[in-house]
Amino acid sequence: MNDAACRGLSDVFFPAPAERPQARERREAMAREVCNSCEVQTACKDFARNHHEYGFWGGESEEQRHLAGFHLIAPIGIRANSK
Ligand code: SF4
User: Fold this and answer.
1) 65 lines ligand 1 (CB under 6 A)
2) Domain span including residue 14
3) pLDDT at residue number 2
4) Is 4 within a domain?
5) Is 12 a pocket residue for ligand 1 (Cβ < 6 Å)?
6) Is residue 3 included in any domain, yes or no?
7) What letter does residue 41 receive in the DSSP assignment?
8) Atom of ligand 1 nearest to the CA of 48
């Protein structure tokens, strides 16, 4: 966590209530840029995949993890429909 480039940027990595799809795309693009400059990106991505995390971790959204085979324990919305 000490090496995380996202420290203090929670608003970029977790959605606001009732976030619209276009806002989500913009927010995740900003998060992806931060992740791509982060020196712990691989470890972060592996952790999120293996712990079924929500939010944007290691350059991946929840949906990207889901599509990569790392399913959420309690999927919601489009993720629940794509099983
Ligand atoms: S790779 Fe992980 S630790 Fe690094 S900025 Fe992205 S979410 Fe934060």
Assistant:
1) no
2) 10-81
3) 85
4) no
5) no
6) no
7) H
8) 2
Cβ(5) – ligand 1 distance below 6 Å: yes
Q: How far is the CA of 49 from the centre of ligand 1 (A)?
A: 13
56 Cα–ligand 1 center, Å:
8
Number of domains in the chain: 1
Give the other-Cβ count within 10 Å of 59's Cβ.
19
In this structure, the residue with its CA closest to atom 7 of ligand 1 is: 57
Residues 12, 18, 44: CA angle, nearest 5 degrees: 35
Residue type at 9 in one-letter notation: L
Examine the pLDDT at 79 and tell me if it is beyond 70.
no
User: Is 73 domain-assigned?
Assistant: yes
Q: Is residue 36 part of a domain?
A: yes
14 vs 45, more confident: 45
Q: pTM value?
A: 0.82
Q: Are 34 and 9 in contact (CB under 8 A)?
A: yes
Q: What number of residues does the chain have?
A: 83
